[in-house]
C-alpha cells in the first residue's frame, strides 16, 4: 500500500487530503494482505481509499469523514462486522451510506443477518477484485444520487442544484432546470463569456455561474456567497449554501420581484425608474461596480444617476442616501 493514499489504524491524529474528483471507499478488514489487495485494486480503478483493521477504528474514521461506500469484513476479532454495521447505521448521517459485507459465511442466515443490520450487498470470500469494483461502482452512483436529493430537500428550497467545481451538474430540481437557461441568456454578446448550447444546460453550469463559483472557491470561500443579476424587473439571485459532499457544492437559485420597492422609491422621491433601481441597490450595500454589473449599465452612468439621486434626496453622501431609502422601504413594509 502507498502511505500517501491510505489511512492506517495508527494514524488517528489526521486524515489524508482526499481528492475532490474521486469517490472514497473505506475498507475494514483485520487481514493486512486483504487490505493491500483491495486497496491497490480500488486505487487502480480510480477510487481514493481509507483503511481500518477493526470496527472501532472504522467508527473513528466515519466520525471525521463520510466515504461513498464501506467494504466491511463480516468476521473480525472483538467487534465483528455485523455489530460494526449496526453502530454505523445508528448515526443518521450514515443512513444512505452503502455497506457491502465481505464474508465466507454464505449460509442464508448469515446473509440475511447482514441485510438486517443495514448492509446493502455482500461479496463472498475469497473476493474477486473485478466483482468488488463492479459492486462498488453501482452502489456509489445510487448513493450519491440519493444524497443529492436529500441535501436539496433538507434546506427546503425548490430551485436547488448540486454542482462540481468543474461545472458538472450532479443533480438539479425541476425548478432549477427551468431557471438555469436564464443565466446563460444573461451573458451579453462580447462580454467574453462563451454561449452554451441549450442542450448542454442540464449537464453543465452556465459559464456565468461557473466562473463566479470558481472565483468563490479559489478565494477560499471568503467572498460573498451570492451574486445577483437583473432580468427585466426580476432579480435573479444565486447562493452557495455549502458543501453537498466532498468536492460538490449546493447552490440555490432564487428570483425576486423588486418592482414594488423600486416603484415606492420612485414615487416618494420623484425618481426615474433607473434612478430608483440604483438607489435600491445602493441601500443594499452594493458598490458602484456591483450596481453596474447588476443593472447592465456603464459605471459612469451609475455615477450620473447617483448625482441626480443625491440632489433629489437633498443628501451629499452614499450612506445618507442609503439611510433615507431604507427608512422609506421600512415604512412601506409596516
Automatic annotation (TrEMBL):
<keyword id="KW-0804">Transcription</keyword>
<dbReference type="Pfam" id="PF00072">
    <property type="entry name" value="Response_reg"/>
</dbReference>
<dbReference type="GO" id="GO:0032993">
    <property type="term" value="C:protein-DNA complex"/>
</dbReference>
<keyword id="KW-0238">DNA-binding</keyword>
<dbReference type="Pfam" id="PF00196">
    <property type="entry name" value="GerE"/>
</dbReference>
<dbReference type="GO" id="GO:0000156">
    <property type="term" value="F:phosphorelay response regulator activity"/>
</dbReference>
<feature type="domain" description="HTH luxR-type">
    <location>
        <begin position="264"/>
        <end position="329"/>
    </location>
</feature>
<keyword id="KW-0597">Phosphoprotein</keyword>
<keyword id="KW-0902">Two-component regulatory system</keyword>
<dbReference type="GO" id="GO:0006355">
    <property type="term" value="P:regulation of DNA-templated transcription"/>
</dbReference>
<feature type="modified residue" description="4-aspartylphosphate">
    <location>
        <position position="73"/>
    </location>
</feature>
<dbReference type="InterPro" id="IPR000792">
    <property type="entry name" value="Tscrpt_reg_LuxR_C"/>
</dbReference>
<keyword id="KW-0614">Plasmid</keyword>
<feature type="domain" description="Response regulatory">
    <location>
        <begin position="24"/>
        <end position="140"/>
    </location>
</feature>
<protein>
    <submittedName>
        <fullName>DNA-binding response regulator</fullName>
    </submittedName>
</protein>
<dbReference type="GO" id="GO:0000976">
    <property type="term" value="F:transcription cis-regulatory region binding"/>
</dbReference>
<keyword id="KW-0805">Transcription regulation</keyword>
<dbReference type="InterPro" id="IPR011006">
    <property type="entry name" value="CheY-like_superfamily"/>
</dbReference>
<dbReference type="InterPro" id="IPR039420">
    <property type="entry name" value="WalR-like"/>
</dbReference>
<dbReference type="InterPro" id="IPR016032">
    <property type="entry name" value="Sig_transdc_resp-reg_C-effctor"/>
</dbReference>
<dbReference type="InterPro" id="IPR036388">
    <property type="entry name" value="WH-like_DNA-bd_sf"/>
</dbReference>
<dbReference type="InterPro" id="IPR001789">
    <property type="entry name" value="Sig_transdc_resp-reg_receiver"/>
</dbReference>
<dbReference type="GO" id="GO:0005829">
    <property type="term" value="C:cytosol"/>
</dbReference>
